[in-house]
Amino acid sequence: MRRIRYGRFTPEDIEISSQDLLKALASFLLRSGYDNPYDPDPNRQLSFEELRHAIQQALFDESLFEEDKQRQLREMLQNMTPEEFDQLAERLAQQLIGDGLLRQGEGETGEGRPRNGGIEITDKSIDFLGFHTLRNLLGSLGRSSFGAHDTRDMASGIEASGASQPYQFGDTMNLDISATLFSAMRRDGAGLPLQLEYEDLHIHQSEYRSSCATVLMLDCSHSMILYGEDRFTPAKQVALALAHLIRTQFPGDTLRFVLFHDSAEEVRLAELAQVQVGPWYTNTRDGLILAQRLLEQERKDMKQIIMITDGKPSALTLEDGRMYRNAFGLDPLVITRTLEEVGRCKRRGILINTFMLANDYDLVKFVQQVTELCRGKAYFTSPYTLGEYLLYDYMNRKTRTVH
To answer: Comparing 150 with 328, which gets the higher pLDDT?
Structure first.
């Protein structure tokens, strides 16, 4: 009689894909200082030990695995010694690094591990997290794919959707062969050889596809991680999703990122993933000034600013470079200077849409003034619904005609 010997599971018995593991670690990798809100350090990076601990926490989340593997995982964890559990977490951490989803920063120890602050997110991870977030958001909107930004205008492009028109210098040579030959035969008859003249050339009309330049302004003041809620991490996730959407569906568009706090600064997408909130106030005016400067560099049909914030303006950079701060109520000086920049955006044809992660009286009053000045929109939302509102507004607005 054949005998079968059963043994307990070991860390090597269950394989976990790096992509599944990265999805489970998304919030951890994009965290914004929420774990230490009263002593934030915006320059602090992840350590290898923190990554290993986060992986251990993720292993207890059974949603990581298919149903047939959940039972095996539970049994494996129950029978595993602490040393084996540490080995499993370390092997998975090295797997993420080996697959190019994470990288070791400078300053490695003799054991090949980075010191504190040595774990960095790669562009490959950013692209994957953007795609994963976008897919979830589009699923919640009930849509699967989106095309370019339609308008009512007609132009010479690639996709033919209208009647032919005579070719004019500068048009895309999207030649309508039938109309061109018919024009020549109508003039000279059907004899051969057929003589084509410049006036015979006809091209297909196509729908004019508008292009858009967007600056996404992210509030990274201290309030974004206070009051028992992490508001900055979802904002970063939405930024990654919007960047992936534009790159894959609207390649003619541009997207740039501005962080505003005591001052304002532009950050690249790769840098945004690891940005953390600091002990700062909210200098909305500096953010608008920088956003306008960036949009001036873009030659697009549409220019817009998307602002994500949870607080009213509370800081201002004076003419002599000093910082003026007042977090109590609506300071007349701060509000007046900020609204001046909003009016300047309107005169330059820049639309401002505001996504508010809070609904206190002062913030509502300020945003109402902004929307009245620039004819934009204001959305009261939460970190959980921010992505749905923002992506729907972005894609819906592109179907309008720009004159």
So the answer is: 328
